[in-house]
Write a structure and sequence with these properties.
Layout lengths: L1 H4 L4 H5 L11 E6 L3 H4 L5 H17 L4 E6 L1 H4 L12 E3 L10 H4 L5 E7 L1 H14 L4 E9 L3 H13 L3 E3 L1 H9 L7 H8 L1
Parallel strand pairs: 1-2, 1-4, 2-3, 4-5, 5-6
Helix pairs in contact: 4-9, 4-10, 7-8, 9-10
Length: 192
């Protein structure tokens, strides 16, 4: 009935996808956590620390992770704290503009996004993924820019175009779904 009062048919509300994340339907996308870039990111240590928590939770809960690196020859490979086994190499700011990127995401996965810079590579990639019909969850405390106003402007723009704005803690507890999850204690300890 609440939906009918808002002008939204009840059937449409019932047929909407679940607004929360589930580990089996998620992929963590870590964009350009590279040394030369992180050296100029505001509060970089916090951003990397949050990304590290996300990666650890993803690993615990079986969520695949895909790292990207922008012009690794100039910006370096992913920072040591996050060092992936491999990273998707790109020269385009929008990762979707690099051939093969969308194929690496898997069909129907919700994309949880962390990375730098929020107003360049993160923003352009998120907007393209939204345009491609993907559900996107931007982790506000795991993205960074050189200046706070650039990050906040990017967050508002991504949200306006349909991205969900979340925090690390929100993601981890949605992936857990219940305190009865066998990995609850390990995952919850990452947040402390």
């Amino acid at each position: 009935m609440g939906g009918a009062k808002l002008g939204i048919p009840v059937e449409q509300i019932r047929n909407r996808p679940m607004p929360t994340l589930a580990p089996e339907n998620s992929l963590l996308l870590a964009i350009d956590f590279q040394p030369r870039l992180m050296a100029v990111i505001e509060d970089a240590a916090t951003v990397v620390g949050h990304a590290k928590k996300l990666r650890a939770a993803a690993s615990l809960l079986g969520v695949p992770t895909l790292f990207t690196e922008q012009y690794a020859k100039g910006l370096g490979t992913t920072v040591e704290d996050l060092a992936p086994m491999e990273a998707f190499q790109k020269m385009t700011f929008d990762a979707c503009g690099t051939p093969g990127f969308l194929d690496r995401l898997g069909e129907g996965k919700d994309i949880v996004v962390a990375g730098c810079e929020a107003h360049i590579c993160v923003l352009q990639t998120v907007l393209s993924l939204l345009d491609a019909g993907r559900r996107i969850f931007v982790v506000r405390d795991a993205i960074g820019s050189r200046r706070a106003e650039s990050k906040e402007t990017a967050v508002r723009r991504m949200e306006r175009h349909g991205a969900e704005i979340v925090t690390v803690e929100m993601v981890v507890f949605e992936w857990l779904q219940t305190a009865e999850n066998a990995r609850f204690r390990e995952a919850a300890a990452l947040i402390k």
